[in-house]
């Protein structure tokens, strides 16, 4: 049996490779997307200095639009992801950057982040 006939026979019996779902594709790039968000938060924090009285929530809000666009451009699997997923990736990246604690970010956003 040649290679093509073998593939046909395997697919007839249900042994073909299943396509990767959109959710699986998004999950596969999440660690890299979080690291990307951490790197960009460090850059953002160093370049755009806010007055001390500006709440962290406002700083994060200023970062969200460019961060979301950057993530969607760099990680095509996240282009059509629900907005909440991208916000979570950005928040986890901010925590990973070490600039703010997990507790500070959760409090600023009013959410609890999942464990990594």
> What is the number of helices?
5
Helix content: 55-70%
Mean pLDDT: 86
* Terminal Cα span: 47 Å
Strand percentage lies at under 5%
Uncertain ranges: none
Pattern of helices and strands: HHHHH
How does the overall form come out from the CA principal axes? Answer: globular
Largest sheet report: none
Strand runs, count: 0
Radius of gyration: 20 Å
Which structural class matches the secondary elements?
Answer: mainly alpha
Layout: helices, strands, pairs:
Blueprint: H1 3-12, H2 22-47, H3 56-74, H4 83-97, H5 102-109
Helix pairs in contact: 2-3, 2-4, 3-4, 4-5
What descriptive keywords fit this protein?
mainly alpha; 5 helices; globular
């Amino acid at each position: 049996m040649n290679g093509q006939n073998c593939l046909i026979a395997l697919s007839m019996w249900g042994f073909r490779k299943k396509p990767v779902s959109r959710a699986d594709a998004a999950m596969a790039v999440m660690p890299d997307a979080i690291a990307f968000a951490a790197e960009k938060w460090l850059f953002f924090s160093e370049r755009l200095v806010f007055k001390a009285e500006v709440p962290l929530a406002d700083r994060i809000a200023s970062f969200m639009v460019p961060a979301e666009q950057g993530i969607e451009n760099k990680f095509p699997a996240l282009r059509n992801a629900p907005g909440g997923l991208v916000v979570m990736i950005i928040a986890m990246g901010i925590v990973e950057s070490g600039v703010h604690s997990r507790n500070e970010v959760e409090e600023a956003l009013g959410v609890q982040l999942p464990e990594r």
